[in-house]
User: What shape does this take?
Amino acid sequence: MITKVEYKYSFLNFCQQNNQALFTARIQRAGRLEFSRLWALSFCDNVTHLIERVTRFMDRKKMKQGAFITFEGIEGCGKSTQAKRLAKRLGRLGIAHVMTLEPGGTEIGRKMRQVLLDARNKALTPLAELMLYAADRAQHVAEVIKPALGAGKWVICDRFSDATVVYQGAARGQDRKLIRLLNNVVTDGILPHLTFLLDCPVEVGLSRALGRNMKGQDRFEKEALSFHRKVRQGYLDLARKNKERFVILDATAGPKEIEAEILRSLAPLLRERQKKGVCSCNALGSQRDPDLEEMV
Ligand SMILES: Nc1ncnc2c1ncn2[C@@H]1O[C@H](COP(=O)(O)OP(=O)(O)OP(=O)(O)O)[C@@H](O)[C@H]1O
Ligand SMILES: [Mg+2]
Assistant: This one.
């Protein structure tokens, strides 16, 4: 026979056990909820990560379709002439491209170009000059060069980071480490695929520039011959140190001859892009360019 006290204890025991079960069930439910929440979060994270990776892959793939070509050299050596000729050729080949220049490849950059080239700005210090070039390039890379390369276009640029190494470094004597650091930061690590250095004696370049200028000499053209000689030597040294990227051209030759040399140097790159279907010489129809087709 069960006593009153025993009954009371067994009842209490029963409640405690059930309470515990209830408590455990609650914890399990909360745990399950938490687990599903975590799973959902990690799923979202994975999907975002996957999207980012695919986008990056596509960007890189597109970047590989384009090419970054720069023209360098002393004043009046013929950079702009050859950059325009190349842009025309690429246009005829149906290759999407952008032709740009430094300083002044953007609207903001054009204001900096005015300051940099204005011969009246004699008081501009070498460091201020270097910083203005860096600012111009940062804007140019972000606004023009990177988006164009990202869209798989060819970018033809009249002067780029090498000009700073030579003009502000070799000729003006600014700290090379600082120039390298600034260039790395503002270019976001972007280097040209190929750089054409148009080389000629400074007297030739300056007399061409003088013959062309209607508005008078700019701040750089007004510099002494010794400055321009340092620039020429600086470019040659840089080209010798970066043989895989630079092509040195004799800028005393005629514009047509120089252009042919440029196209010959670009033939492997064009052939590679043609394989990827970026340019198709066969699809040019009436706009066929026999010179280039032969080279490609
Ligand atoms: N190979 C060449 N032979 C003779 N004259 C040339 C040649 N290339 C360009 N020129 C002429 O020389 C002048 C300067 O050329 P261009 O403007 O292309 O030089 P640049 O290097 O861009 O000069 P800058 O450094 O001042 O921008 C122009 O009048 C151009 O027509
Ligand atoms: Mg020019």
